[in-house]
Amino acid sequence: MKTYYQRLTHKITWAFVVLGLVIAMAAGVGLHYLEGIRVYQMQFEDEWEEYQRMVSAEDVLKEISLDISAWQAGMLPVSELKSKSYELTRILNTWTRDEQEEVRRVYTLNYEKQEARYLYPARQAFFVLSRAINNLHPKPTTLSSAVLIESLNQLQQASYPLRQFYFQSIQASLEKAQKARDRIQRDSSYFFLIVAVLVLGISIYSIKTLYGQARQLMEQERQIASVTLVQHLAHEIRNPLGIVKSAASVIAKRSTGEVVGLADDIVSEVERVDGLLTDLLHLRRGDSQPKEATDISALVLKVADLFASKIRAADLRLDVYNQAPGVFLPCRPDSIRQVLMNLLLNAIEASSEKNSIEMTMMVSGSEYMLQVRDHGTGMTPEQKQKIFDLMYTTKPYGFGIGLTVVKRIVEDHGGRIEVSNPPPEGTAFTIYLPMRI
């Protein structure tokens, strides 16, 4: 039972570990996406400020264009034009300072290179126009007017591509941010779906496991009640059997002829019943001997040698496949020997003449596998379900105790036993024992 609880706890723990890893991974991906949105938002804000600054500069340029016409007509003093130049210079200085700060938090080098293609010519044209305005005299001349108009035209030509670049960059940033938001929403849906499926799976697994545990406990209680009753009867029967055996032995010694044979039959049958009672007592008593490291292959081979004559007498063949020699298991050798003897006896009784019995030994992960297989008629699903129940047997004789003892010994060793019908025919009993205590 302790091993069962450990296995149950281990499986449920791993299930919740997987759930925790999925949640942590989803949280990491979500934080990554949120960081991307934050970067896109900051980039959008910077580009929007530059675009607004560009629009402000173009508004000043429109005012300068109108003021130039008024100045040429003598309707506007040159000081008004120069004040517009100061305002334009202030915008340029603010723009330059923000650009220097932006260099320290560059988003993409590619964006900076593209911006420089349009920004530097426009900025140069701004400075040329500002210098041309600052060099004006109170009275317009043909040369100064031509220089002023030329610099204004150059600036307008240079500023249009820059404004378009900022506008397109803003649109691109908004699209990236929107895609990132859409991806977060989509992945969040997937994440919640995965978590819901995992929680549902873990819940179903836990319920099935607990239901199986409840059934196992009910089965154990039923078997304990049956074993207690049977063992009480075994104790009561054993005492008169001893008297019967002693009396039959005395009769055999003091008699002759046919009476001796009958007395010997009585002794033989009493010994057989006594062996049955010993098996019944073993169900409750268990084995208190300590486990010891045992060469399991050598133990199996000794049991095979012990049954060699019996197998030959039944006109059968025993094939031993040792795929893991030299493996030492923590076990009780006498108990494992009893398990193998019971399984071999069942295999012999289930086999027909000329058939073979196979014993296979191999390592399967952290467990050692022992299999005894016959090539008889096999078992029905109902028989396989009840085969380990106390007092259940498929034979016309016997009491259905041997396999119950086998299952109890295997579970006492922290292992498990399975029964199957491997093709093309026959029955296989497979024992899995832990490699370590």
Report on this model:
The protein is α+β, with helices and mostly antiparallel strands and 437 residues long. It folds into two domains: 202 residues, Four Helix Bundle (Hemerythrin (Met), subunit A) (Up-down Bundle); 146 residues, Histidine kinase-like ATPase, C-terminal domain (Heat Shock Protein 90), CATH 3.30.565. Helices cover 72% and strands 10% of the residues. It has a five-stranded mixed β-sheet. Strands 1-3 form a two-stranded antiparallel sheet. It is rod-shaped. It starts with a helix and ends with a strand. About 1% of the residues have low confidence.
Structural class comes to alpha+beta
Query: Strand content of the residues, in percent?
Result: 5-15%
Q: Count the helices. How many? A: 10
Please tally the β strands and state the result. Answer: 7
What attributes characterize this protein structure?
437 residues; alpha+beta; five-stranded mixed beta sheet; 7 strands; Heat Shock Protein 90; Four Helix Bundle (Hemerythrin (Met), subunit A); 2 domains; 10% strand
Short description:
The chain is α+β, with helices and mostly antiparallel strands. Helix content is 72%, strand content 10%.
Layout of secondary structure:
Elements: H1 2-72, H2 78-103, H3 109-134, H4 142-254, H5 258-285, E1 292-295, H6 296-306, H7 308-313, E2 317-322, E3 328-331, H8 333-350, E4 356-364, E5 367-373, H9 381-386, H10 402-412, E6 416-420, E7 428-434
